[in-house]
Amino acid sequence: MPPALPPLFLSRMQRQLGDEYDAFLASYDQPPDVGLRVNTLKLSPEEFESISPFQLTPIPWAPAGFIVPPDSRPGKHPYHTAGLYYLQDPSAMAVAELLAPQPGERVLDLAAAPGGKATHIAALMAAKGLLVANDLNFRRAQVLAKNLERWGMRNVVVLNESPPRLVEHFGAYFDRVIVDAPCSGEGMFRKDPAERAKWMPKLVESCAMRQDAILVEAAKLVRPGGILAYATCTFAVEEDEGAIARFLSSHPEFELIDPPRSPGFSAGRADCLGEQAAQSQALQHTVRLWPHRAPGEGHFIALLQKSNTSHDISVPLTSLLPYSLPPEPRQYFQKFCNETLNWQPSEDRLSLMGSHLYRIPDDCPDLSGLKVIHWGWWLGTLKKKRFEPSHAMAMGLRAEDMRKTLPLTLDDPAAHSYLRGEVLSSPGVDGWVLVTIDGYPLGWGKRVQGRLKTHLPNWLRQF
User: Fold this and answer.
1) For position 269, what pLDDT does the model report?
2) Of the residues 183, 207, 233, 272, which is catalytic?
3) Residue 462: its H or E element
4) β-strands 405-408, 424-425: how paired?
């Protein structure tokens, strides 16, 4: 049996919720909601509904979000491998929707792994502008990079840096910054019972201290007039309304924005702050999602706008100038494009970083000195006497971009053979082939003498 809910947590929630406590407690007897968010860079929610193998229930605050039955196993479906959707808690989808990033903006996701909010932001930006997705933990940053690759991203830089290093490098550079703060994870108690065993009051205290430090650094990265979003998946006031109250008391250049309200959104609980009651009126502009009131596991969200008169330092940044491709790598990439693609990537944004070839996002600033996982759209790797395309390139393409495709359908046994990494029979011209499922890219295959070898990464194969 899973660990019981911590008694100290329950007594605190009873004080915090009063008459709603019984309904809150009863929510733990229900299975967690499984959320699915459509990749609108590849298809519209309506198009997905027309091909969905799952029963879909719309999520009120997320036009591309749906709840699917808990036994539907959407993570094992070929459409998931094709990046047609991301599995994300319904309440977590509210964060990017409220942040509302716009195409063409500069946006920073400060603690982005595993990628739920970053993929959502990228879709809302319609692949226009610059998204910097960062995570301090190297292993988590690698997972983030993989999820963004599957999403088909072309305009995202993935970093593995600390907030102070980002402040030192960028200064007040970004139109919007999101802090999905490390927290005590109380909202995960139903979905991940192992989180219950880790919980203790001291964890809440230590998380609150860390969140205060992160918010201070994040504020320096927001340009004057820009927006800072703060989010947690915990119910602890110290980490939610308390964190915002402490931040506002020392950062008068920021003020809370009252966001649009959707069904299931509740106002922040300023009445729990005691001596900080002076902030109570403004703190009602924060948003809480409760598992007994709305789909999902629960979230806290605050939107803060920086004054246009802020004097935070803006670091002079030059645009990242792509390095000219040496003649030999250019020759091999050109040969691949001529044989494989129906279009020619513009050379003015191509850069060779080590052996990896990237298409650098437009207006990407100089990233020298930072720990970069991806410099933009990773096209592939230059190897001895050849260019080998990356999975990230495949997922950023469309079937019509290709000279050679292997179109598969859900009911085709070859689709499942490909996902298992098996060699397929495939008559046709030798060379790189884009394998598709119902018209959407799955990954590369390489055809030699009528046999196609799977080049799907091992982490995506379904053995």
Assistant:
1) 81
2) 233
3) none
4) unpaired
Omega prior to 114 cis, within 30 of 0: yes
Helix H or strand E segment including 70: none
Summarize the confidence of residues 340-353 as an average pLDDT: 86
Supply the pTM of this predicted model.
0.95
Q: Judge whether 183 and 232 are in contact, CB under 8 Å.
A: yes
Mean pLDDT along residues 379-391: 95
Q: Which of 261, 220, 268, 260 is nearest to 241 (CA)?
A: 268
Confidence at residue 87, expressed as pLDDT on a 0 to 100 scale: 97
Q: How far is CA 49 from CA 44, 120, 154, in A?
A: 9, 18, 25
DSSP collapsed to 3 states, 71-140 = CCCHHHCHHHHCCCEEECCHHHHHHHHHHCCCCCCEEEECCCCCCHHHHHHHHHCCCCCEEEEECCCHHH
Tell me what pLDDT residue 334 has: 93
Fold type of domain 402-463: 2.30.130
> Rounded distance, CA 154 to CA 379, Å?
10
Tens digit of each residue's pLDDT (9 = 90 or more) over 205-257:
999 999 999 999 999 999 999 999 999 999 999 999 999 999 999 999 999 99
Q: Which pair of tokens denotes residue 155? A: 């305009």
CATH topology of domain 7-306: Rossmann fold (3.40.50)
Please give the Cα distance from 415 to 426 (Å, whole number). 12
- Half-sphere exposure at residue 457, Cβ-oriented, CA atoms within 13 angstroms: 15
Residue with tokens 């809370």: 256
Q: Residue 328, SS3?
A: helix
56-65 burial string, b = 16+ CB within 10 Å, else e?
A: beebebbebb
CA distance 141 to 156: 13
DSSP-assigned letter for residue 363: T
- Domain limits, the chain: 7-306, 321-359+366-396, 402-463
| CA–CA gap between residue 338 and residue 347 (Å, rounded) | 14
Establish whether 233 is a catalytic residue.
Answer: yes
333 neighbors 327 (Cβ within 8 angstroms): no
Give per-residue pLDDT as tens, 255-267.
Answer: 999 999 899 999 9
The DSSP call for residue 157 is E
- Burial label for 118, CB within 10 Å (0-12, 13-18, 19+), is buried
